[in-house]
Amino acid sequence: MVQQGLRVALAAMVLTVVAGCGSSEAPDLGVPENGTALAACGPGSQPETGLQGQVPLADRQSGRNLLGYKCNLEVIGQYQGAGASVVSPSYDKCAYMSTSGVILDPLQLLGRNPGVHVVDASNPEQPFLSANLTGPSMAIGTWESLKVNEPRKLLGGVAVGPLAGAAFFDVYDISDCTKPVHLNGIAGTGLELPTNVLGHEGNWAPDGMTYWATGLLAGSITAIDTSNPASPRIVYTGLKGFPANHGAEFSADGNTLYLATCLPGGVTILDVSDVQGRKPAPQLRQLGSVTWNPLSCGQHAIPVTWKGKPHLIVPDEFNSEGIHFVDISDPTEPKVVKQIQLEIQHIEHARTRIADVTGNGAFGYESHYCTVDRHENPTALACGYFQSGIRVFDIRDPDRVREIAYYNPPAQTGKGLALQHSLHAWIGGLLPTISDLNSSGSTLPEAGLRDLASVVAFVASLPGLLDNLGTGPVSGNLSADWCSSPPRFVGDKLWVTCMDNGFLVLGFQNGVYPIR
What we know:
Structural class: mainly beta
Strand order of the largest sheet: 1-28-27-26-25
Low-confidence stretches: 1-30, 440-444, 465-473
Mean pLDDT: 88
Number of strands: 31
Strand content: 25-35%
Radius of gyration: 21 Å
Largest sheet: 5 strands, antiparallel
């Protein structure tokens, strides 16, 4: 019990510091119970050299990682800029590249274009910077809270900075997505009245009338009324998802909130109809919950239906948990029915993972944000991963998932000082790898030995990092990118932002998508 208590305490401390992240016919392939059939890479591909999702240590040392890895996906256009932070959404013909923020990097105040970068991708082959947003939240850093509400054409995010922040919430009109207009500044200035309690993550209710900020710590959650986006106001604040909550997604009517949780990793389903209906003294009522790992961290929970049966798709950013499919036919008794792990995430490859990723920051091979091509009977799931790039899966049959494409961009080793907006290149890449402290199924001695080995290897690598001014002490080795933002299906293309490589327009090859 003492060992277990120490283990949980260590995980809580660590999370507080960092978490905050061919043919279109499915072949008759054997699919591992907790895996996915491998992609069949067609002409023009440059496949991975190791396990599925892996950038092997040998590739990192030889420079092979500088070429990247691709399978049935190719780059159509790119705007790298100064890199990006954790979540950078796209909308219409634009992308919004978040920043690690001026608290972590005060030198951003001296840059030519501080804050969030607005990228005009009306010509997908030649995206370019069209504006920069400098509201308080945009400058401080929005972490995982920068989100778009399409029906009302609003962009919003809360001030987070390093891990969690308070007070500010920026709202922009993106009717012209290339030139957002700051709506809630005081008298036309960039100043704002405080309109949030604590923020780390966040999302809009589907109708755009409410923005929900989740604060991670202690399960803080705040509902902000945006019926008048020029004058947002708090209508609810409380604690849900203790000890740590994370991303929020919603039912179509906005009355049910699917709240990802950390420590343990899982999902809590909440009735938020009081807030949605603007009832006086609103309360949130828990309908049900499910967990899967006491030391993992659910990221967000995408609601979908297969043949009328409701499910959630839940990526997890810790402990190589991968992605979980949760049956919510009975919201009071949600059940995990499928787990998807890349080969490199399997427990037998734990030591290989640590050897690969040591020196490249806090997150190993972890899933983060995912997107489906449609919510009813989805055919494809695209997910951004730390160190494993962008992965696309055929999910027409949720019991027989197979990968159809991937793109892991070239490592930006030696370019850290030029990527000031990248959380990976600026501080995040320097930290020891903590996301894989306790892989699923590990025993305490095994986990403890791996933790110790990771820390020792990290400390041993510091002299080399300090000697290499190209990466420098702020960056780690940058041996694989962190692609933590949500991809977006745009016709036969995929739009996504990675921290080091910036905004990317990817095109599918070899007829793998659309899936027919």
